[in-house]
Every structure is written in structure tokens, then in C-alpha cells.
Amino acid sequence: MFPSTQTLNSAFKGTQKPFIAASPAEKGAIELNSARYFYTCAAGGVLACGLTHYALTPLDMLKCRMQVNKSLYSGVFDGFKKVASAEGLKGLYLGGAPTLLGYSLQGMGKYGFYEYFKYLYGNAVGEEAAVKYKTLLYLSASASAEFIADVMLCPMEALKVKMQTSSTPFATSFLGGLRKIHAAEGINGFYKGLTPLWLRQIPYTMVKFATFETTVETIYKKILSKPKDQYGKTEQLGVTFAAGYFAGIFCAIVSHPADTLVSKLNNVAKAEGESTGALAVRILKDLGFAGVWTGLVPRIFMIGTLTGMQWFIYDSFKVATGLPTTGGAAPKKE
């Protein structure tokens, strides 16, 4: 999936030094910005996104249902009570299988390609420009990564939303749900929400990564008294979680209107001859300004917790494999 470090460096030979040079690796260690490094980051992304999204399936399910029918529950706790009473724990984890698979795939693309594009774009513009405009580097790398990651996520997101928001059980099994969507709508049924998903996830991820990187750097420079490398890994992971949670709050606000639209698109049937774009416009008109913000409070709690835990799991995995935690230090000049 990712080119080797030698391939990347040869592509830029005679132009400038790499933005983050591949470090000399000890025997058996993972060399920074090598193909193995990018694959390791992708594996960390699988764990970070798949596990956290699955764990928060009950909250996500209630959020989706409230977006589709805002009068269904009076609030989050009312929703938990009603679902648990009527359907038990199984009901709270409705849509868990496509959530786990879909967001594992998305995490693989999101984190792996973010590290790859950050390295690639940094080399393309040169070390001086990459350091000077590092926030633009974070934004462009994360947007590129999420564009790919959403193509991997979209089919599972379509199934998840249908399972969680249908008034009657959508399907009796995961494979049955996939077959039902394909039989009714073909491949388009899995990807009709892709554009709204991009509108939701790309701004979300740009805010998530840029805010996280900036917050980590700010914590070490302005709040803590020592450089990052003078703190232990446990302390660094504490900074990771705090910065991740802070970034998550902004992510939830930026991406919420598009999130509401995705939920409605996968729940509302098209009129005869109606395009996906026309359906989206009709839904937005019906919702109005206030309607697109339905479910924001539970989503802020969900996304803040989710983002904080994702970064914590991701960086913990990196530490376990011998890699440094993310952010907090400017690239070193050679």
C-alpha cells in the first residue's frame, strides 16, 4: 500500500532533504517513515477507531435515532432506559458489527495515510516551508487520508444506519443486511451517502489532526515546564488523551450538520427519479436550521471521549512497537 522509504527518497533526490528524515534504526526496530512504519501506524489506526466506535455503539445508535426522529426519546438517558427495557443489551449494540468493521477499515486509512501524506507533502514543499506552514501540512495530509478512508467506511456506515434507525428490524444478520441493500439499490445503496460522509468526515478529520497536533505542541511549550523528550511515556500519553479530547469537542461541532444528513439519507427513501443530491436538499429543507443540530450534545460527549481514546490507543500502540508518541516536537534540521 505504501511505497518504501527508498522509493520516496529517490523521488525527491536532488531537491531537498526529507521533512522528517528516516531515522537510523537499531536491529529489529521500526525505521521512521519506512513502509513498515506506515503499516504500523495503519495497524494502530485499526485498533484506535474500530474498538472505540464499537464501545460507543449504544450512544451512536441513540444519536442516529434522535436525528431521524427527534421526538423518539426525551434525552440520552431516556433513550438508554427505553431501549434497554425493550431490547436489552443486544438492542443497545444494534449495528455493532458494521460499526466495528467499518471503522476499523476507516482507522487503517485515516492514520496510516495521514502519516504517509504528512511525510510525502513535507518532502514536496521542502523542510523550511513544511515547518513554517506545519498547520497547512496537517490539514492537507489529514484531508487526503480521510478522502480515502471514507471510501472504505461508506458501505458499513450505510448498513449501520439502516440497522439502527429502521422502525422494524432491517435484517436478521450482518450478511443479510448487505444482501438486502444490494438487492434493493445495487452498489449505489452502499455509496449514496459518500458525498455527505466526505462533508462530515473530512472537516472532522482536518480539525481532529490539526487541533491535536497544535494542542500537544502548546501543552509542552506553554503549560508544562520541560520538553517532550524529558517526560516518560505514561506522562506523554496523558498529554495525548487531553489533547485528543479537546480536539474532539471541535470535531463534533464542525461535522454535526453533515452527520445528521448522513443519518437521514440512509433512512429516507428517494422519490421516483430523485437524485441523491435532490434528496439531500429536500431533507435539509425539512430539517431546517435547528433540525440539523439535533443530537449535538450527546455527540459532543461521544466524539470528545471517542477522539481522546482514539489518540490514546493509537499512541499507546506506537509506544508498544517502539515508536514515539505523536506531535509535540518540531522536526529537527540536519
Automatic annotation (TrEMBL):
Q: Which InterPro entries match?
A: MCP_dom_sf, MCP_transmembrane, SLC25A3/Pic2/Mir1-like
UniProt GO MF annotations: phosphate transmembrane transporter activity
Task: Output the Gene Ontology cellular-component terms.
Answer: mitochondrial inner membrane
Q: Where are the Solcar repeats?
A: 36-120, 133-218, 235-320
The cross-references to PROSITE patterns, in alphabetical order and at most eight, read:
SOLCAR
Sorted UniProt keywords: Membrane, Mitochondrion, Mitochondrion inner membrane, Repeat, Transmembrane, Transmembrane helix, Transport
Family indicated by similarity: Belongs to the mitochondrial carrier (TC 2.A.29) family.
Q: What does this protein do?
A: Transport of phosphate groups from the cytosol to the mitochondrial matrix.
Q: What is this protein called?
A: Cu/Pi carrier
Q: Which organism is it from?
A: Coemansia asiatica
Which gene name belongs to this protein? Answer: PIC2_1
